[in-house]
Design a protein that fits this description.
The complex is a heterotrimer.
Chain A: H1 2-28, H2 35-52, H3 57-80, H4 87-109, E1 123-126, E2 129-132, H5 133-155, H6 157-167, H7 169-174, H8 179-204, H9 213-226, H10 231-252, H11 259-271
Antiparallel strand pairs in A: 1-2
Helix pairs in contact in A: 1-5, 1-8, 1-9, 1-10, 2-3, 2-4, 2-8, 2-9, 3-8, 5-6, 5-8, 6-8, 9-10, 9-11
Chain B: H1 5-20, H2 27-53, H3 60-78, H4 82-104, H5 109-129, H6 132-135, E1 141-142, H7 150-174, H8 176-186, H9 188-193, H10 198-224, E2 226-227, H11 229-232, H12 235-248, H13 254-270, H14 279-293, H15 298-313
Antiparallel strand pairs in B: 1-2
Helix pairs in contact in B: 1-7, 2-7, 2-8, 2-10, 2-12, 2-13, 3-4, 3-5, 3-10, 4-10, 7-10, 8-10, 12-13, 13-14
Chain C: E1 5-14, E2 17-27, E3 32-36, H1 43-51, E4 58-63, E5 66-67, H2 73-79, E6 81-83, H3 96-104, H4 109-114, H5 119-128, H6 145-158, E7 163-167, H7 175-190, E8 194-198, H8 202-205, E9 211-216, E10 219-224, H9 226-231, H10 233-242
Parallel strand pairs in C: 3-8, 3-9, 6-7, 7-8
Antiparallel strand pairs in C: 1-2, 1-4, 4-5, 9-10
Helix pairs in contact in C: 3-5, 3-6, 5-6
Classes of the chains: A mainly alpha, B mainly alpha, C alpha/beta.
Chain lengths: ~280, ~325, ~240
């Protein structure tokens, strides 16, 4: 029972983390290896605003999202667009960017990790398992954001344009959708999502300059295993990964928590490169 | 083979220059140069695989790590003499090269890069968990037998290894095989369509890359005398290798060397101003700008500049082509 | 005499779609055959099966009497069959000679290392397809569409092929370039090359072929001389139906 609850909570967080990465992969067709840096930025912005300056937490969270969004927009304009079409170049340059941003954080905040106070303090007990309100809040926020995103993509004009671009760039352009604008929008959205996820992730673990690697790997796993980014696929696979980790920790050994995620990536990529759920559009 | 005496003369001059360096610089600078030599070896290894065939490896520390760990474990835990441990380590690394090669049979591009990244992370986690009595777990190993004592000897060892590897790779890449490997990177389908087995070519590239990585890794651990998983299977380390190859100029031999020396000295140059990891901020930014400005690397920039001056002054003709 | 290429009862299914439907054809040595049909008739799929890029569902493909269905693409090429592509696929950072060099290489790592490139033969092939001396060191980015098609044919010749499959050789070419390629194919026919040519440009195809096979929905609908096939009612209606 404890495993199920912990699995559900962790998976909710992972789904939130992976969502922004999925969006970019689906719409822009590129792997943004600096995605983890949004989480880093989100975490540190929130830390500065809410914990250092004591601004209300909700505003801190919003500002983190805004900064993440700005970074995403800049990244698209300055990096991804000039390298258009060259996926490998985008991957390499985003990887470099991630290292640069990590070093920037070290520069501003120092090398040591920081504890982020829970966004929602307190602990409750559900069926014998102790659950922090913080993780609970993260999970609820994650679900709310995912449902919102799903409705947004399905129901709004912009959302449908995103679907169109994810299916066929040129086709979308012919139908009067400007892929460039949609891409820009998606990068901004992805940045905001990543930064938001970063705040929750940092409060779940801790704030450190190298905190971007683990979420990046999780996102990669989710996207790879789920197939090219559908929102539902992301949700399902986030739960597979989350539960696998919780099970590995509980049943086998805590040190092995990441091993199975890695194995899953390798096995799925080699055996079924199109992912478990195949190619879907958002 | 397409050799010209001017090329050989330039190599000779380069070797003499590298060998003479310890006479002129301080011990501290030599230590920096030693690191640059190893970085150049790793960058050449990366380039043989990724720069040529276009299969971008984001997990090169996986191969280097196999070489380093095998040799360290054999010498330290089983008292195997170093002259047997290193060849064994190279062989093990080549086995690792085959492991990396298998996914390349089915997937390419971004997916391949991600598998290799997963390999590296997997190795990092497994090394800490499986048989920590052998690997030293999270803390790694220290007191590994060293090959040399002192900076000068260390420099000679590393520079000889680097030059030997660079020169043999240079010879190899000047043959038709080098052309074929580059062709795989440009258009794999057309290589098959020309009647060549790309499987064979890729396997060769992966094995050669692993051979160099294993050799470099094993010698590196016997130079340092210690090994730590976090420093080895690290994205910053990976980043340095890739950037060295790219910034210098992928698909050449002189490029990765140039990149390695450029990066190492940039890092050293920044040390007085920024002592810690924040150096990577400037370092990475410069790397990023250079990469965005000229994806073909410093070698292409120098080449362009060289062509221009040669055109302007029309002096005696020298080989301006990239090595 | 054994035919150069003999395809018997070839079937290719993609899921429920039958792309090649019980297709049989024979090309005698040194003959030139046109393969025509409306868009989506399955012409390129036939090429892909001959080259082993797709494995057929059933049926056999024989090259000079040898069954090649189990061979890989490079093995088939070394047996003497090669194709060009509708969209040329050159090695972008290599010059014309180096592109041809890749076609000439032995498929053996050791020989690649030890044997030097045969520069004179490379030049000979390049000149034979109509490249000017000044073009030999140009990279594909500097070449016209017509030159790129010549380059593809040159690399194909370099593999030592005896049977050449040409996919839409005239697509995207100027009138002058079509004339050049036509002359080139004619001279290669004289030298004994066997051809299977796919083209939408029927007028340009006519002088190049001894006979024509028309397919639609992956099935052969007519076969014979160019004029016979053109006058065939099934062929006419298939083209009209597609248009």
């Amino acid at each position: 029972m404890q495993i199920i609850i912990q699995g559900l909570l962790l998976s909710g967080l992972y789904a939130l983390i992976a969502m922004g990465f999925t969006l970019i992969f689906s719409v822009g067709r590129v792997l943004n290896l600096a995605y983890g840096a949004y989480l880093l930025i989100g975490g540190y912005v929130y830390f500065t605003i809410s914990q250092t300056f004591g601004v209300p937490k909700l505003i801190g969270l919003l500002l983190a999202a805004v900064v993440g969004c700005l970074v995403g927009l800049l990244k698209y304009r300055l990096l991804v667009k000039p390298l258009k079409g060259d996926h490998v170049a985008v991957e390499i340059s985003t990887l470099i960017l991630a290292v640069v941003l990590q070093a920037g954080v070290v520069f501003l905040y120092g090398d040591s990790s920081k504890i982020l106070l829970p966004i929602v303090p307190g602990v409750t007990h559900v069926a014998g398992a102790s659950v922090t309100y913080n993780l609970l809040a993260a999970t609820f926020a994650s679900w709310a954001i995912l449902i919102g995103l799903y409705l947004f993509v399905r129901k709004t004009h912009v959302g449908r344009a995103m679907q169109a671009v994810s299916m066929d760039n040129r086709g979308a352009a012919i139908s009067g959708v400007d892929p460039d604008k949609i891409n820009l929008f998606t990068w901004g959205l992805s940045g905001a999502l990543g930064a938001t996820a970063g705040v929750f992730f940092a409060s779940y673990t801790q704030l450190s300059p190298s905190m971007w690697v683990a979420p990046l790997i999780i996102s990669v796993a989710v996207v790879i295993v789920g197939g090219i980014g559908s929102i539902i696929g992301t949700l399902v696979v986030a739960h597979i990964v989350g539960f696998m980790e919780v099970l590995a920790v509980a049943v086998i050994a805590p040190e092995l928590r990441g091993v199975f995620t890695m194995l899953l990536i390798i096995v799925v990529l080699v055996i079924r490169p199109q992912g478990l759920f195949g190619r879907e559009e958002l | 083979m397409n050799l010209r005496w001017t090329h050989l003369a330039m190599w000779l001059a380069f070797v003499c220059l590298m060998m003479a360096i310890p006479e002129f610089v301080s011990k501290g600078t030599l230590r920096t140069l030693i690191f640059a030599n190893f970085l150049a070896i790793f960058a050449i290894s990366w380039d043989v695989l990724s720069g040529r065939t276009g299969y971008i490896s984001f997990g090169h520390p996986f191969l280097i790590g196999i070489g380093a760990y095998t040799s360290a474990i054999l010498t330290k835990r089983f008292d195997v003499p170093i002259e047997y441990a290193i060849p064994a380590a190279v062989l093990m690394t080549m086995v690792g090269g085959i492991i990396v090669f298998l996914p390349a049979l089915r997937i390419k591009g971004s997916y391949f890069a991600l598998v290799t990244l997963a390999f590296m992370e997997l190795m990092y986690q497994l090394v800490q968990v499986i048989r920590p009595d052998l690997t030293g777990g999270t803390r790694g190993m220290s007191g590994v037998q060293t090959l040399t004592r002192g900076a000068v000897n260390g420099y000679y060892m590393s520079v000889s290894l680097m030059l030997a590897i660079a020169f043999s790779m240079w010879l190899l890449m000047r043959t038709q095989l080098g052309t074929a490997l580059s062709a795989v990177g440009m258009n794999e389908e057309s290589v098959r369509g020309s009647g060549l087995s790309t499987t064979k070519l890729k396997l060769f590239a992966f094995l050669t890359s692993a051979f160099v990585a294993g050799l470099g890794g094993a010698f590196y651990v016997h130079y340092l005398g210690s090994i730590a998983p976090r420093a080895l299977f690290d994205i910053n380390f990976l980043f340095t290798i890739i950037v060295a190859a790219l910034i210098g100029g992928a698909s050449t031999i002189i490029g990765p060397m140039l990149g390695a020396f450029f990066l190492t000295f940039l890092l050293e140059f920044l040390r007085p101003y920024l002592p810690g990891a924040e150096r990577y901020f400037i370092y990475g930014t410069i790397a990023l700008l250079l990469y965005m400005y000229e994806p073909k690397g410093l070698i292409a920039i120098i080449d362009k500049y060289w062509q221009r001056t040669r055109g302007t002054f029309a002096r005696k003709q020298e080989p301006g082509e990239s090595l | 005499m054994t035919p150069a290429l003999k395809i018997s009862n070839l079937v290719k299914k993609f899921g429920g779609l039958v792309a090649t439907n019980d297709l049989s054809l024979v090309i005698e040595d040194q003959q030139s055959v046109g393969l025509i049909g409306p868009n989506g008739a399955g012409k390129t799929t036939v090429f892909a099966q001959i080259m082993g890029e797709h494995r057929q569902t059933s049926g056999s493909i024989e090259l000079y009497g040898h069954e090649i269905s189990n061979d890989t693409t490079p093995e088939r090429i070394r047996r003497g069959v090669s194709r060009t592509y509708q969209v040329p696929r050159p090695f972008t950072d290599m010059n014309v000679l180096e592109n041809i060099r890749v076609g000439m290489m032995p498929n053996n790592i050791w020989k690649m290392i030890t044997s030097p490139p045969r520069h004179s033969r490379e030049t000979e092939i390049a000149l034979s397809v109509g490249f000017a001396k000044a073009d030999l060191t140009k990279t594909p980015g500097e070449l016209s569409m017509g030159d790129l098609r010549k380059l593809e044919m040159a690399r194909t010749i370099a593999t030592g092929t005896k049977v050449m499959l040409l996919d839409e050789v005239f697509a995207g070419l100027t009138v002058a370039e079509i004339a050049q390629i036509t002359t080139l194919i004619q001279s290669m026919r004289k030298d004994g090359m066997t051809f299977l040519i796919v083209s939408h440009d029927l007028k340009a195809l006519e002088p190049l072929v001894d006979s024509v096979i028309a397919i639609n929905y992956g099935r052969k609908i007519a076969e014979g001389s160019f004029s016979d096939v053109m006058n065939d009612s099934a062929v006419r209606s298939s083209y009209l139906g597609a248009a």
